[in-house]
Amino acid sequence: MSDRATIRGGFNRGGRSDRGSGRGGNRGGNRGAPRGGHGDDHGERERPKKENILDLSRFMDKQIRVKFNGGREVVGTLKGFDQLMNLVLDEVKETMRDEEGEESSRSLGLIVARGTLLTLISPLDGSEEIANPFIDAE
């Protein structure tokens, strides 16, 4: 019984004892270009700088309305932001609506709004309505 491994072809049945070179070893590896590369391109390519879709620097120190995933809505002064769209708002007032549609508000002061929860950001002043570009002109 002790010879069984050598009779059947070694430790990994492929006849060799080095790891990954027998049957089933190194699955899917070393086909095509080397890892992480794209053919002959060995040098570092300079990628264009990623920019946010929305330029929030235009709204610094201005009143904006922010709506969140859960339906909450706040109005406050934009004091800061980062590339993940996390916002720092000051003098924030949250507007709440009950089942009858009546509005009430409460003051929150200074908040940090997490970017993953934002659904809408709009300035309170300077917005204008435009025609819907997706409706076919008849």
From TrEMBL:
<keyword id="KW-0539">Nucleus</keyword>
<feature type="compositionally biased region" description="Gly residues">
    <location>
        <begin position="22"/>
        <end position="36"/>
    </location>
</feature>
<dbReference type="GO" id="GO:0071013">
    <property type="term" value="C:catalytic step 2 spliceosome"/>
</dbReference>
<keyword id="KW-0508">mRNA splicing</keyword>
<dbReference type="GO" id="GO:0071004">
    <property type="term" value="C:U2-type prespliceosome"/>
</dbReference>
<dbReference type="GO" id="GO:1990726">
    <property type="term" value="C:Lsm1-7-Pat1 complex"/>
</dbReference>
<dbReference type="InterPro" id="IPR001163">
    <property type="entry name" value="Sm_dom_euk/arc"/>
</dbReference>
<keyword id="KW-0747">Spliceosome</keyword>
<comment type="similarity">
    <text>Belongs to the snRNP Sm proteins family.</text>
</comment>
<dbReference type="GO" id="GO:0005688">
    <property type="term" value="C:U6 snRNP"/>
</dbReference>
<dbReference type="GO" id="GO:0003723">
    <property type="term" value="F:RNA binding"/>
</dbReference>
<keyword id="KW-0694">RNA-binding</keyword>
<feature type="domain" description="Sm">
    <location>
        <begin position="51"/>
        <end position="127"/>
    </location>
</feature>
<dbReference type="GO" id="GO:0000956">
    <property type="term" value="P:nuclear-transcribed mRNA catabolic process"/>
</dbReference>
<keyword id="KW-0687">Ribonucleoprotein</keyword>
<dbReference type="GO" id="GO:0097526">
    <property type="term" value="C:spliceosomal tri-snRNP complex"/>
</dbReference>
<dbReference type="InterPro" id="IPR010920">
    <property type="entry name" value="LSM_dom_sf"/>
</dbReference>
<dbReference type="InterPro" id="IPR017132">
    <property type="entry name" value="Lsm7"/>
</dbReference>
<dbReference type="InterPro" id="IPR044641">
    <property type="entry name" value="Lsm7/SmG-like"/>
</dbReference>
<dbReference type="InterPro" id="IPR047575">
    <property type="entry name" value="Sm"/>
</dbReference>
<dbReference type="GO" id="GO:0000398">
    <property type="term" value="P:mRNA splicing, via spliceosome"/>
</dbReference>
<protein>
    <submittedName>
        <fullName>U6 snRNA-associated Sm-like protein LSm7</fullName>
    </submittedName>
</protein>
<feature type="region of interest" description="Disordered">
    <location>
        <begin position="1"/>
        <end position="54"/>
    </location>
</feature>
<feature type="compositionally biased region" description="Basic and acidic residues">
    <location>
        <begin position="37"/>
        <end position="54"/>
    </location>
</feature>
<keyword id="KW-0507">mRNA processing</keyword>
<dbReference type="Pfam" id="PF01423">
    <property type="entry name" value="LSM"/>
</dbReference>
